[in-house]
Design brief:
Elements (H helix, E strand, L loop, with lengths): L1 H4 L13 H32 L5 H17 L1 H8 L1 H21 L3 H30 L4 H28 L3 H22 L18 H19 L5 H22 L16 H15 L1 H13 L5 H8 L1 H13 L7 H22 L5 H29 L5 H29 L8 H13 L2 H14 L7
Helix pairs in contact: 2-6, 2-7, 2-8, 3-6, 3-9, 3-17, 4-5, 4-17, 5-6, 5-8, 6-17, 7-8, 7-14, 7-16, 9-10, 9-17, 11-16, 11-17, 11-19, 12-13, 12-17, 12-18, 14-16, 15-16, 15-18, 15-19, 16-17, 17-18
């Protein structure tokens, strides 16, 4: 207990036994994190080359659906095949997806590659959450998460640049060949560098089967959320969001009642339990963060008169604030964790309010400060949320809890993007909207999420309440 309560130093991560494993995990995150930015800048060139403009939204929706659906089954794959073997297969599946995209003669074939990229990349990302506890121990989780956040920043900076450069040279396919090579190199790195670690007893490993029926409902929910936000229709989009929520609720209900092959730990759906409150807080907070990412560039261009490059630099404040706060607070002592989590959740609420009242009226520096508060609040507490969720479950459930965390956050992102689209279009956003309409839309894009952020903050308080500790 004294060792766990002590402050964690960075030099613990760069020891000989830790550094190769850390680099391997960061490379796994890099492949997943860079993919969406790379695809966003190369798909216009791909459409010019092979056609299929009407299918371009599917290139993102299928990747996200594939990544979340496979993440849901990661704990079962690890129980059956082992961590290293699962990661190697995921890296090779990702590589295969990149090769298919790089050689695709038509858009439907390219979409097959995107599904494989999503399956491989999503599995790698979820497996990193499982591996960090096995290889580094619960004490080092916040610092590992801080470095993982930095990988996301590097991906945000370099992904568009890499994709844009290859697209400008007329070599968009070469960008995917480059990432296929990285995936191919990752497989032997996993084999040779990820050795040792904690082995967990999984008595049901040999009989558990992947629950395809439940995963189909989870995948359907993600697809519906993604398509509702990507291609707005005044009638279909709200119906797709509603159907997605029902599909997600059905998935949770069926998994809660399952006797075998559960995807979620049993504590995750019991709202009196700390874990359920932590998961609900992570889901709702992720949902609330998406409106600035989705509509921030448009508002910066239309209201502030920026060009796309300038708007992109402002958007980069988000990952920088998240990762900076994660690293800054990662060495906190155990007794400070409840304060950090509660403060972080409150900063998300204050940040949303600050953006809602400053962004519509041209207060750029006030908006940037509010964005830093919002994302910094999430960054400062995220590593400790992961740490406490993993620590609160029995040993046999730790892999399940670890793999559930990226599912929770990414599902919140998908639903948040869809709700942002409903709010923006519901308040009259369309091509050529006048300034007053843009300001009204801008206000409600952030104020509309404040009630959900308040619920998330309440869940954060319940999550770290000593009276609920188990």
């Amino acid at each position: 207990m004294e060792a766990d309560a002590a402050a964690v130093r960075w030099n613990e991560l760069i020891r000989r036994e830790h550094l190769p494993k850390l680099v391997t995990l960061c490379m796994s995150v890099w492949l997943h994190a860079t993919n969406s930015m790379l695809t966003a800048t190369t798909m216009p060139s791909a459409v010019d080359d092979i056609g299929g403009l009407h299918l371009i939204s599917w290139t993102f929706a299928l990747y996200l659906a594939g990544s979340i659906s496979v993440a849901a089954s990661v704990s079962m794959l690890v129980a059956r095949f082992g961590l290293r073997r699962s990661m190697i297969v995921a890296a090779l599946v990702y590589t295969g997806g990149c090769i298919i995209v790089a050689t695709a003669p038509t858009m439907p074939i390219l979409l097959v590659g995107r599904v494989l990229q999503g399956l491989g990349g999503g599995a790698l990302f979820a497996l990193v959450f499982v591996a960090q506890d096995r290889f580094f121990g619960i004490r080092l989780v916040p610092k590992v998460m801080g470095l993982v956040s930095m990988v996301w920043v590097l991906a945000a900076l370099s992904g568009p640049a890499i994709g844009g450069a290859f697209a400008n040279w007329g070599l968009w396919r070469l960008a995917f060949w480059l990432f296929a090579l990285q995936g191919l190199l990752l497989a032997p790195a996993i084999f040779y560098l990820l050795r040792g670690g904690v082995e967990r007893a999984t008595p049901a490993a040999g009989v558990e089967r992947i629950p395809w029926f439940r995963i189909a409902f989870l995948t359907g929910a993600i697809l519906l959320f993604s398509l509702a936000g990507a291609d707005y229709d005044p009638l279909l989009s709200p119906l797709m969001v509603l159907a997605g929520c029902l599909s997600l609720a059905f998935f949770i209900a069926r998994d809660r009642g399952a006797r075998a092959s559960r995807i979620l730990p049993p504590q995750a759906t019991r709202l009196h339990h700390p874990i359920a409150n932590g998961i609900a807080m992570a889901f709702l907070t992720g949902l609330c963060l998406m409106s600035f990412m989705v509509y921030g560039p448009l508002i910066l261009i239309e209201v502030y008169g920026m060009n796309p490059l300038q708007a992109g630099f402002v958007i980069l404040v988000e990952p920088f604030a998240w990762s900076g706060a994660a690293i800054l607070f990662s060495g906190a002592r155990q007794r400070q964790e409840p304060w950090i989590i509660r403060t972080g959740s409150a900063l998300v609420v204050l940040g949303l309010l600050g953006i809602a009242f400053s962004f519509p009226y041209g207060s750029l520096w006030a908006t940037v400060a509010a964005v830093v508060l919002m994302n910094g609040g999430m960054g400062m507490m995220w590593g400790f949320v992961i740490k406490r969720v993993i620590a609160a479950v029995p040993e046999s459930e730790k892999d399940r809890a670890s793999s559930m965390l990226p599912i929770t956050l990414q599902t919140g992102f998908a639903l948040g993007a869809a709700i942002s689209g409903l709010i923006a279009n519901g308040f009259g956003l369309e091509s050529g909207s006048d300034l007053e309409v843009l300001r009204r839309v801008c206000f409600w894009l952030f104020a509309g999420f404040v009630p959900l952020a308040l619920v998330a903050s309440l869940c954060a308080w319940r999550f770290v309440d000593p009276a609920r500790a188990t």
